[in-house]
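Exercise: predict the fold of this chain.
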Amino acid sequence: MKKVFLFTVALVVFSCGKKEQIPDSILSEAQMVDLLIDIRMAEGKVSTLTLNNDSSAILFKVLEDEIFTEHDIDSTTYMTSYNYYLLNPAKFLRITDIVIDSLKVRQQELTTGRRPSN
């Protein structure tokens, strides 16, 4: 019994000791949050316009290209990073939660003219 306990403690210590490194080709979580906020806002802008689907897709592509230029990345880096985070659900959920919260704050600021109180 004592050996099982020691093995369990050793396993926990060694499994918690190493933090996963994000590959250099992947955007950081903070960069991904900023990028996704801008992309979601662009999606919102396009969806409020009364355009046919083809025109909406073209407009969104233009806005998306502007966002990539503003963030100094390309579509390949975005897709590689997005897929990386999709395969790491805890990180993806953390990023998504931050994006949603940030968009809610921005929406409330626009509708009420002030930041929400916590």
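Check your answer against the key: The helical segments are 2-17, 29-48, 53-70, 75-86, 89-112.
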